[in-house]
């Protein structure tokens, strides 16, 4: 039997599909939407957090897009070939693309973006680039990536947020993080940056010179910053806001909002990312450096309560490091079920003496705050002396980048393949200060490094699966991080906003195809 929320989703999906097929696109109009929290910056690749991806995926582009089945589609690359040995990827670029400042987009921009900009700044891209031997522009519109060895998920790497194309003529030879253009991002996408009134709104306007004929239909997109969750819900109710991207209202408001007239909802658009909530646990020092303490934390947390009460039953409680949407999950592992008695046994065994530890909530809204409070209560019930230290987004980024924490909430994207989105959290060569998105916990295990590196290039898939099963067994025992939730993130929108989700990254690039039936 379907729940009321599931019925609302089904009805919304039917209404969306039927209406989208019945009407022809119309030009014009501005969509008002929400970004929560306000992003720390808008230059993709330099900043990889979810709010930046959501806004800037409409400013910047990658070589490819992906369907909801994760099949590659052309974007800046109009076609590509893969050599028989799986080592050479040749991308043929469109010859009619310009940057928002009017300069031509060329193969040299691709080489600079991948081989210079992302190698320095982007841990997600670096995890892929370790398999790349060379990147060469053979002419103005052809780029050849030569791999050291075959790397199965390579074609999944070119989404805008992972391999963002940035303009070489504006960034080459500069201090990337201090570049003046960071405040006025220049991309190739369907929308151009117009204005950022901090704390209020980010305004994007139609790129009149966009290379895809007839697109975008919209005149612009306004991303409103409304810090209070209740106020965001009210803004949608009173029709000030047209689209609520995932995570922009509290989960307890979703069923009510989904039942309103002229409201549609979809859970599509997250297939590429597979958002996976985790609890960073500092493996370097203090009680959290002992794997028995980390195991105790897993047993102490009531994750089913979090799913059913805080997340409205959306999402899944993960078995271990590999989510159910990731390839090669080892489903023979023993789950860390809620077991306070076992948690207390482990704490006694390690001789935990009541040393205080701290939790950093993720500053993305009330649901995350409540979740931190629930985990704090769970840990106190088994005798862990824990306090919460709230921060804003900038402070959260800084604390994690400096490794200044004991426990901290986060969520990362798994990207459909362990070599892209999972291994980066556990590989020891991905430990580096300054980023909240790499191996932040400081986990080091030589065998895990070997298994992840070998599995990334093993052939065929049966060999990859054997290696990934072993690595999951080790991680399951060591518990480098706490595995919290495979997040379910619905998008709500007015039903007269048509064709909003057209790829596996949802609204992050969906406004290109969207139009208003008003």
TrEMBL record:
Domain of life: Bacteria
Record domain Solute-binding protein family: where: 71-428
Pfam family name, one: SBP_bac_5
Keyword terms, alphabetized: Signal
Gene Ontology biological process: peptide transport
Signal peptide: 1-22
InterPro entries: Peptide/Ni-bd, SBP_5, SBP_5_dom
A GO term, aspect molecular function: peptide transmembrane transporter activity
Gene Ontology cellular-component terms listed: ATP-binding cassette (ABC) transporter complex; outer membrane-bounded periplasmic space
Family membership: Belongs to the bacterial solute-binding protein 5 family.
Name used for this protein in its record: ABC transporter substrate-binding protein
């Amino acid at each position: 039997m379907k729940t009321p929320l599931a019925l609302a989703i089904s009805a919304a999906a039917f209404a969306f599909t039927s209406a989208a097929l019945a009407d022809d696109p119309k030009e014009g109009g501005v969509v008002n939407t929400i970004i929560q929290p306000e992003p720390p910056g808008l230059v993709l690749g330099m900043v990889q957090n979810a709010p930046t991806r959501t806004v800037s995926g409409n400013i910047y582009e990658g070589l490819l897009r992906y369907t909801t089945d994760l099949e590659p589609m052309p974007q800046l690359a109009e076609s590509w070939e893969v050599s028989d040995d799986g080592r050479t990827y040749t991308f043929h670029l469109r010859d009619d693309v310009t940057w928002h400042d009017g300069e031509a987009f060329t193969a040299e921009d691709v080489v600079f973006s991948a081989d210079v900009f992302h190698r320095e700044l982007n841990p997600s891209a670096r995890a892929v680039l370790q398999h790349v031997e060379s990147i060469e522009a053979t002419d103005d519109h052809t780029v050849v990536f030569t791999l050291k060895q075959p790397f199965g998920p390579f074609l999944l790497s070119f989404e805008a947020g992972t391999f963002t194309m940035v303009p070489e003529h504006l960034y080459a030879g500069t201090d990337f993080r201090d570049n003046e253009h960071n405040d006025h991002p220049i991309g190739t996408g369907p929308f151009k940056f117009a204005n950022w009134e901090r704390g209020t709104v980010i305004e994007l306007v139609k790129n009149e010179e966009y290379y895809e004929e007839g697109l975008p239909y919209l005149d612009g997109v306004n991303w409103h910053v409304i810090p209070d969750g209740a106020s965001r819900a009210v803004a949608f109710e009173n029709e000030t806001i047209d689209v609520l991207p995932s995570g922009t209202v509290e989960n307890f408001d979703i069923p009510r909002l989904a039942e309103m007239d002229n409201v549609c909802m979809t859970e599509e658009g997250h297939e590429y990312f597979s958002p996976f909530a985790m609890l960073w646990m500092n493996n370097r020092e203090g009680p959290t450096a002992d794997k028995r303490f980390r195991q105790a934390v897993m047993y102490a947390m009531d994750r089913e309560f979090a799913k059913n009460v805080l997340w409205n039953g959306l999402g899944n409680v993960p078995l271990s490091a590999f989510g159910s949407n990731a390839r090669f999950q080892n489903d023979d592992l023993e789950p860390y079920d809620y077991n306070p008695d076992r948690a207390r046994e482990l704490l006694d065994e390690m001789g935990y003496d009541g040393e205080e530890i701290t939790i950093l909530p993720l500053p993305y809204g009330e649901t995350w705050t409540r979740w931190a409070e629930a985990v704090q209560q769970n840990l106190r019930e088994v005798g862990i002396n824990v306090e919460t230290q709230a921060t804003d987004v900038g402070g959260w980024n800084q604390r994690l980048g400096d490794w200044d924490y004991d426990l901290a909430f986060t969520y990362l994207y798994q990207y459909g393949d362990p070599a892209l989105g999972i291994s980066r959290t556990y590989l020891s060569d991905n430990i580096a200060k300054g980023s909240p998105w790499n191996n932040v916990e400081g986990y080091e295990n030589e065998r895990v490094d070997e298994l992840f590196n070998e599995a990334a290039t093993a052939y065929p898939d049966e060999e990859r699966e054997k290696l990934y099963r072993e690595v999951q067994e080790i991680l399951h025992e060591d518990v480098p991080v706490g595995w919290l939730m495979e997040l379910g993130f619905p998008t709500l929108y007015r039903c007269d906003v048509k064709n909003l989700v057209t790829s596996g990254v949802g609204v992050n690039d969906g406004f290109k195809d969207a139009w208003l039936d008003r």
